[in-house]
Amino acid sequence: MSEVGGLQMLVRASGDMLRFPLGYAHWPRTSSFRFRSYTWSRERSAVCDCAPQRTRIGVADGRCVSVPNVPGAPGPLPSLGLNPRNSGSCRQPALRLPEGGARECGQRPHECKDCGKSFRRLSDLITHRRIHSGERPYECKECRKFFSQWSNLTRHRRIHSGERPYECKECGKAFTQWSGLTIHRRIHSGERPYECKDCGKAFLRASNHRTHRRMHSGERPYECKECGKAFIQASNLRTHKKIHSGERPYECKDCGKAFHRQSHLTAHRRIHSGERPYECKECGKSFTQVSSFTTHRRIHSGERPYECKECGKSFTQWSGLTIHKRIHSGERPFECKECGKAFLRATILRTHIRIHSGERPYECKECGKSFTQQSNLATHRRIHSGERPYECKECGKAFLRASNLRTHSRIHSGERPYECKECGKTFNQLAHLTTHRRIHSGERLYK
């Protein structure tokens, strides 16, 4: 390599010291480049578009490498006519132009052939491709969980070690990641920097904002290859795949019940501990999950942000709208293998299966009576406690269940939403309509 035609840059993993064989042996430390040696030709140098006060000396891994002025640095480099400077990167990708040999910043030259998403670095594209291929090459030796990125495995290990190096000065809560602390601080400051232009809803995280926007656009980019079902988030697809594989890696040590998600196990454990950390300031009701708490608050605010385009009915949860749409489409995707009966919801199927298995996992500690559903046990407990939380505003009568209050309210309003198609008679309860239909069909349930 001639002195005039080239510049040798050596970056060592230990110390990150830059050495140049042009009489400038020691340059200041930098963390921008590691583990590689690069050679830059004179024709590659150019003014950096991202920072005019810097001069580009080359390109490494698709990134523009530039150097800023440093007071007190040695004299000029004879080969390039540059002053010795602190080496650094503008962290922008670089793309060679047809003429002149210079490179431009701000490009995303690496495109995914599966979904069209583009990236600044080839390494980012390689990592992204694992979403489509399902490859997760990094395994945790503690719990056998796999990850698509080494950095995710490193963070995951802190769950086992208990290490939480990033602590909030406001409340003392500690986090495994700096980003987690940064987002947490917004809870104290009230900052929600990511706002939806369609509905005005604001978010703490950019990722939550991106996911939310798909609700407006209808985009569901993550599709299950087994059944064709599509999802807004990659994490939802990964969880869904466990339905086909039967994998339930998170097991409760108290009762042996297993779950697809760690978050579901965490919430389930509160059934055993009795912990209900999320309390409503309006009515004092407490919840085991923050999602349930958020949904509950909409009862007081009246907010129902998810509306059916077919009939205009609105819901407090996206999942409620998704299930409701199946009424219009007739879809019942969850079928019982024992009797062939199909259901709108997976939870109803799981409860139904207990009819065949005889399983009643929820037991009352007061009287020993057991139930197929947690909600039935919760309602039953009110018999012992005397609690009747649902009160009619018209007459003051109180009920164990919200559904009983809704039915009772129809006495005052006169509403009779269930109509017989045979004779036009209407009823305030579905059960009454079901019984009435037997008059026309001649069916006698009890002989």
Automatic annotation (TrEMBL):
- Annotated Gene3D superfamilies: Classic Zinc Finger (3.30.160.60)
Q: Which InterPro entries match?
A: Znf_C2H2_sf (IPR036236), Znf_C2H2_type (IPR013087)
Which residues does UniProt assign to the signal peptide? Answer: none
Q: What is its main location?
A: nucleus
Q: What subcellular locations does the record give?
A: Nucleus
Chain ranges passing through the membrane: none
**Keyword RNA-binding appears in the UniProt entry:** no
Boundaries of every C2H2-type domain copy: 110-137, 138-165, 166-193, 194-221, 222-249, 250-277, 278-305, 306-333, 334-361, 362-389, 390-417, 418-445
State the SUPFAM superfamilies in the record.
Answer: beta-beta-alpha zinc fingers
Query: Keyword Transcription: yes or no?
Result: yes
Q: Which UniProt keywords apply?
A: DNA-binding, Metal-binding, Nucleus, Repeat, Transcription, Transcription regulation, Zinc, Zinc-finger
For this UniProt entry, the molecular function terms from Gene Ontology, in alphabetical order, are: DNA binding; DNA-binding transcription factor activity, RNA polymerase II-specific; zinc ion binding
Which PROSITE patterns did the record assign?
ZINC_FINGER_C2H2_1, ZINC_FINGER_C2H2_2
Query: Record's Gene Ontology CC terms?
Result: nucleus
Protein family = Belongs to the krueppel C2H2-type zinc-finger protein family.
Record-given protein name: Zinc finger protein 571-like
- Organism, by scientific name, is Chrysochloris asiatica
